[in-house]
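Review form for a predicted model. The reviewer records the input and the model, then writes brief findings.
Reviewer: anonymous (R2)
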Amino acid sequence: MVRALCFHGPTHVPCPPGTAPDRIGAGRSSEVFAEGPDRVVKLYRQPFEPEAVANELAASRLAHGFGLPVPEAFGIVGRAGRTGILFVRLDGPPMTLRYAYNPFGLMLALRRVARIQHAVHAYPAPGLPSQHARLRHQIEGARVPEHLRNAALAALDRLPVVNRLCHGDVHPGNVISTRAGLHLIDWQKATAGDPAADVARSELVLRYGRLGPAWFSRLAPVRMARRLVAAWYVASYCAASGLPRETITAWRLPVAVSRLFGRPSGTDAEVLAAIEALVRNSPDFEKASLFASPGQSLGRG
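Model under review:
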C-alpha cells in the first residue's frame, strides 16, 4: 500500500490510498504512472533536480492558467522516496506513436504544434528562470572544444534578452494527441526567453534528437527526411508568427552547443560535427545554417 502526499500551496493533502500504480510512460528523467481513472503521477528518476521539478510545476500551472493546451498540474507528490508531480490524465498517445505510419498526418500535426508554440510565446513568464542565463551556463559546461564554446558565447552575447513564455523542449515526443486536440507536456525546461531560441531548440531536436537505434539515424533517407521535417516545422512557425527565418537562424549556434551539456546522447557526435562545420565555414554565425547540405556527412549519429 502506497500513500502519497499532494502539496497544494501550504496545505498537504493526502492522495487516495492504493497499490503501486501502473506505469504508462517513461523518459530519460522520469516515469509516468496511472493514478486512478483521471490522473497520472510523473515521478522523477533518482537522482533528480528539485529545481527542475519546481520549475515544471510552476510553468505547467502558468501555461494552464493562460488557457493553453496543457494538462492541469495539481501539486508535488512524494511516493516511496521519490518525488514527482500529479497531473490530470490525458487520454491519447504521444504524436510519435499517433503518426508513426502516417507521414502526411505528421506534417499537418507539426503545423498545429507550431501554432501552439506560437500561442505559448504570446504570454509573459513571471517567475521562470532566464533563458539567456541558462544557455550561458550550459554553453560554459558543454562538451565542446574551447574555440566552439567561445564562438557560441560570442553569438549569445549578440542576441536579445526577451521574457516571453518558452517551453524549452517542444517536439513530437512531448505532445499528446487526444480527441480534444494536441496537448503540450513536460515543462521542466521552461524559461522566460526569446521565442526564436525556443523554435531553434525545436528545430535542433527534430533534426538531431534521438530516434530509434543509432544505425537507423545514420541512414541517408532518414537524415534527409529529418532535415525536411525540421525545415517544414520552422516554415510553419514563421507562417503562423510572421517571425523572419533569420531570427531563428541567429540562435542555432548557441542552442546547438548548449545541447552538448549534461548527460551524453547517441547523437552528440553528429551535433558536434555540425557545430564544427558551422564555425569552420561561416564566420557570420547569424546568417549561417547549422544544417549541412543533404550530401554532406556530419559524422556518426
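Findings: Residues 1-21, 285-301 have pLDDT under 50 and may be disordered.
Further findings: The chain has two domains: 5-88, 95-281.
Recommendation: see findings above.
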